[in-house]
Amino acid sequence: MVNPDTNGTNRTNKPNFFTNHKYNKNLFKNTRQTKNMQQQTTEEYAIEKHKLARKIAGEIVLTQKPGEAIRKWRNIFKTSQRELADEMNLMPSVISDYESGRRKSPGTAMIKKTVNSLLKIDNKKGNIITKEFNGLYSNKTLTDAILDIRETTKPYTLENIIKYVKGTLICGEDEVKKPLYGYTIIDSIKAIIELSPKELVKLYGMTTERALIFTKIERGRSPLIAIKVTNIKPGAIIFHGPKEVDKLAERIAKVEGIPLILSRLETTDELISSLRTNIQPTQTT
Question: Which structural domain, as residue segments, surrounds residue 117?
Fold first, then answer.
């Protein structure tokens, strides 16, 4: 492009040094800010990952049955005995022996290696479990929607939990012996009103080995549709509140292969009290 200069002659526009300098300076500033944000995110994630590692290791160390704790966390991380053994350069029978109690309690080095291997496997899969775990416990909005939560080392069968909640099994008759490692009780109204779809995924995501219990339910259609959309399968779903379950909710539960129970206890307080009385948290020495 050609513009006249002050003398009436033409000259070609050239990049202005000061304009380019200012642009480059802003570009450098933005790049530096982006790098700082990425570094901060990486550091925060490393801290959260360390917290999770300490939680797992602490549970294995303190429980009276460390083998059950190893099995519980291996299942939470959706890892087979062979996959874990391969990461640890061990035979799968070693993992099996620890989990069954045939081997004595693992030493500190073995526990550290187990925890690090679980986290490495999760890292290869995109840190899915680590992100879900830390997202659940670090988000105040999420925790406000949780009325009660309990993790256990000892597995409780679905049959036990049905009895504790005075429940009626709607579907999932073949799953009554299924082992569950605790429960999460959710205020469904608060969850639906206050949580974003992404936060709901985080909330549901850590329940694959636990019972997910919804209170203040009218018919139960919305929670089942949400679970179907997020493609997450809790160990079991329990509704508290409705007199009967919505037919579409029941159909979704059957298709997804999720046991569905209707609790007949009168109040939420009764529900929480009964579960807390009958389901003990991780036992320590």
Answer: 34-127
